[in-house]
Structures are given as structure tokens and as C-alpha cells.
Write a structure and sequence with these properties.
The protein has 255 residues and is of the alpha/beta class. Helix content is 44%, strand content 16%. The chain has helices spanning 16-30, 47-54, 80-84, 95-100, 105-118, 130-134, 138-149, 155-158, 179-197, 199-204, 218-222, 239-252, and strands at 4-9, 36-41, 59-63, 89-92, 121-126, 162-165, 206-210, 229-232. It binds 2-phosphoglycolic acid.
Length: 255
Amino acid sequence: MRTMFVAGNWKMNKTIAETRELLSALKAGLNDLQGVERVVCPPFVSLAAAHELLAGTNIGLGAQNMHWEEKGAFTGEVSSGMLKELCGYVILGHSERRTYFGETDETVNKKLLAAQKAGLIPIVCVGETLAQYEAGQTAEVVSSQTRAGLQGVSAEFASQIVVAYEPVWAIGTGKASSAENAQGVHAVIRQVLTELFGAETAQAIRILYGGSVTATNAAEFFSQPDIDGALVGGASLKVDDFVGIVSQSQIAKGE
Ligand code: PGA
């Protein structure tokens, strides 16, 4: 049985002071919930403060991106070693990184291999655009993103990777995918993972749904057999909503 996983992607939101405020409230709200791995991903500059605030809690900390090189002349970038001092997780290949910052399957793969080396758990995002969705190319797109992004990863590390299916048309739009549609795509992704790493490893990998997840629609996603949690954007900035989503994941799997 896979442990449910809910991560909050704060994107470019919250100052250090605001991070402290939000995390204090989240700590109180999430404290009593069991059986679900929960992670917050604030901006880089807030990670040190968040690391201190979350010490001794069961809330994990993640970054939203990183570079694949360990160090050097890469102005404005952050390495896996720098993150490793503060966090256990890193989001890789988010569609906003692919769309606005030129990330490709190739750079996602380099970052993933760097995460493997550093022992950071990657949350790897895949998902089709609206045009690809409307052209019926979803399965093809997510399969090739998954294959290319995870190339060269060891089966041992693969079982720890978290994959997030995030249809681009559902991110920040308030138009979530239907749970049935998402389940179908998750099954495709798990089939690709089975081909890459074998059935046992593929069964251990958590596949999250992301895109306009709310405390209202979360339970429906979590009741699907291949949906193992959520990557939450907007709703992760609101205490009640995020706590609501994490508790739905608890309820859905009966833990
Ligand atoms: P959203 O974002 O929940 O605001 O749609 C999801 C994401 O980008 O991870």
C-alpha cells in the first residue's frame, strides 16, 4: 500500500515573515493527521526559516527547482547540495518552468539524476497542454515526458520518486480534470513506470494529481486507485484549504 502524499507548491508567494505565519498555522492544523506524507515547498529564500520552524514536526520541506550542477558559475541558480542542508524534496519540471524558463525533458532528466546523487526526493511533473489535450495526445505526451525525464534512474531510487500529473490546462484555472480522466492518465503513467522499472517498483511509486485541487474536489481524486495524493498550488496558501486536502487524503484511504 502506498502512503498518500500531499505537497503544497507555494510558487512565487510569501515573504519570510509570511512564511513563518503560514507555517505556524499549518503546524497546528496538520499536527493530528496521520498516514499521509505532507510537504510544503516555499520559495528558496524562505527555506532556511521554514527548515527551523518545521524541525521536529512531520511536515516535510521541499524546493521548487534546482540546477543540475553541484556548483560553479551559474548566476542565480541553486544546487542540490545547498538544498540538501535544508530540504528532503524538490519539485522538478513544473509546467511553469517548462513554459516560462525553457525547461525541457533533457534538463528535467539532468536535475533528476542530480537529485538521485544528492538523495533528494524529486516530485517530477508531467502534463499536456490544452492543445495537446484537445488533439487527443495526452497519453503520448505524458508517456514520453515520463520516459525522457526518468531516463537512467536506478530502480532503487525510482521507488522513492514522486510523479505529479498536472494537465497544464487545469493549473491555476479553477478547471480541474475530472477524477476519471486523471485516473486514466495515472494508469498510463504507471504502465510506463512498469515498463521502465518493473511492476514491483512501479507499484511503489506515488503518482499525484495537480491542477485546481481544492478541499472540495480532493476526495474524489484520492478515491481513484492510481491517484496517491496531490500537488496543490493556490489552495496550499490557505490554511483551511490545505489542511482540508491533507485530511481528505487520510479519509479516502481509510487510514
Ligand atoms: P493550482 O496549481 O493548484 O493552483 O492549480 C497546481 C500546481 O501548479 O502545482
